[in-house]
Amino acid sequence: MALHIIDHPLVQHKLSIMRKKETSTTEFRTLLREIAMFMGYEVTRDFPLTYEEIETPLMKMNAPKIAGKKVVIAPILRAGLGMVDGLLSLIPAARVGHIGMYRDEETCQPVFYYYKMPAEKDRLVIVTDPMLATGGSAIDAIRRLKEDGYTSIRLMCLVASPQGVKAVSEAYPDVEIFLAALDEGLNEKNYILPGLGDAGDRIFGTK
Fold first, then answer.
1. What's the angle, vertex CA 7, arms to CA 11 and CA 146, rounded to 5?
2. What is the mean pLDDT of residues 136-140?
3. CB atoms within 10 A of CB 184
């Protein structure tokens, strides 16, 4: 299982503020964007480098640059949108796709309603969703991406349950998962505990 938990002190500190029920929508949104940027450093850590000759004010040198790694950021709507700007601040040339998924409140199964991705299939796709609860939405999103021809996929979430990580890893062992925290589990309504509530509602102020 390719699981990465990003335990940097700044990430953990900011996540603790996000978890507080009194944290405002504005602060929650800002913190999510900041954490996504920090997590982006780890998601892109293995990008290959090449070298080109440049001239500094003092001399010429062979300077490293990323060797053409093309990226698509694919948020699972709607909460995944909250992580896009943080990643774009690191990778401004990235394309952005959209995967519309929501959870049926009665069956807890993901329902697909929108899908729009770039035509180039050789890009690394970073799927974003703050919460990995049962794993159903992530699995459906990854399945659709693979059916569409994408082969290099990474999943970036803020918090996850062990059940969700297990489900995604068993369905797609080739997909690396990046988290800020692995929480205790799920309640009877399949919300992550201790979690931080409904991420979409807290990002957009809809509850």
1. 90
2. 92
3. 11
> Token pair of 105, please?
């409140």
Question: 41-59: b or e for each residue (b if 16 or more CB lie within 10 Å)?
Answer: eebbeeeeeeeeeeeeeee
Which ranges constitute the DSSP H helices of 44-132? 84-90
So which residues are the catalytic ones? 103, 107, 198, 201
Residue 102 is predicted with a pLDDT of 72
Question: Span 21-47, mean pLDDT?
Answer: 95
Tell me the C-alpha distance between 5 and 167, whole Å.
Answer: 17
For 106, the token pair is: 């009665």
> Contact, 15 vs 159, CB < 8 A?
yes
- Flag whether pLDDT at 188 surpasses 80: yes
- In DSSP terms, which residues pair with 177 in a beta bridge? 3, 155
> What is the average per-residue pLDDT within 16-29?
96
Please count the other Cβ atoms lying within 10 Å of the Cβ belonging to residue 131. 26
Rounded to an integer, the average pLDDT of 119-141 is: 94
Amino acid at 75: P
Percent of the chain with pLDDT over 70: 97
Q: Could you please report the per-residue DSSP string of 177-200?
A: EEESEE-SEE-TT--EES--S-HH
User: Could you give the angle at the alpha carbon of 6 between the alpha carbons of 158 and 20, nearest 5°?
Assistant: 45
